[in-house]
Specification:
Distance between the termini: 14 Å
Number of strands: 0
Number of domains: 1
Largest sheet: none
Strand content: under 5%
Length: 252
């Protein structure tokens, strides 16, 4: 399934692309909630980097028919989602779980960073200080919970624990990527439109209001939905003309 661009894989890319656009459109009316990350992550992990990058490129371009052709947004999406697809597509090819040290390092960095920012206080308007602090502590709580879960699973043996560690690792990476998506926007937008330094700083802090809930949503949605989506994409990839009608046990 991984690395092969046959008719079934290309069809899967088209279906997932349409699903990504539909999900983004429907949830675009709900601030801070998005499922594009977990859907594309699960697909890339199951089908590989090649299929993932085709889907990421198609999604980045075709979504313009719904939201309009903004060159800056197109560039941002093409850069970010293709790198995203490459990362998780390559991770999916590994026979062993993601390197043990990657997950706790990312979780500690994000938990410590959000707690430090909440205690120090970001230089935002007093109208947003309470809201930003609440979201920072919420991000700290989610990252800390993932870290505890990962440590518990690390101490437990068995296939279920290995899969749990994999899911926790992917959740941490998904949250980390969500932060970098916002940071990429914070760099591209001021450069593209020629913002002054003060305007660029203001734009950066405004992006926090969208980044924090999306980061939490990305982590939680991967923990909840990745096991289900991985199984769905795995079964879909196995349904070749020669095995349609056979039981799951026969296909293992």
């Amino acid at each position: 399934m991984k690395g092969r661009l046959d008719v079934r894989t290309i069809t899967a890319c088209a279906v997932v692309t349409a699903l990504l656009i539909a999900v983004q459109y429907v949830l675009g009316f709900v601030p801070g909630v998005e499922l594009v990350t977990v859907l594309l992550l699960s697909f890339c992990f199951s089908y590989g980097a090649g299929a993932g990058m085709i889907t990421a490129t198609a999604f980045s371009l075709l979504r313009c028919f719904v939201w309009g052709f903004d060159p800056k947004v197109i560039v941002q999406y093409l850069i970010y989602f293709n790198l995203f697809a490459l990362l998780f597509g390559l991770l999916g090819r590994r026979e062993k779980p993601i390197a043990v040290w990657i997950c706790p390092v990312l979780l500690v960095l994000m938990a410590a960073g959000s707690a430090a920012a909440a205690m120090v206080g970001l230089p935002v308007s007093v109208l947003y200080q309470t809201r930003v602090n609440v979201m920072l502590w919420l991000l700290f709580g989610v990252m800390s919970a993932l870290l505890v879960l990962y440590i518990v699973l690390l101490c437990v043996g068995g296939k279920g624990a290995r899969f749990g560690r994999e899911t926790a690792s992917l959740a941490a990476l998904a949250a980390f990527c969500t932060v970098w998506f916002t940071l990429l926007d914070d760099v591209l937008t001021p450069l593209w439109y020629g913002y002054t330094l003060d305007a660029a700083i203001a734009y950066f802090y405004t992006g926090f209001l969208a980044m924090l809930p999306q980061t939490v949503c990305a982590a939680v949605s991967v923990v909840v939905l990745f096991p289900v989506l991985k199984r769905i994409f795995g079964r879909a990839g196995k349904r070749t003309p020669s095995n349609i009608g056979r039981t799951d046990k026969d296909m293992v």
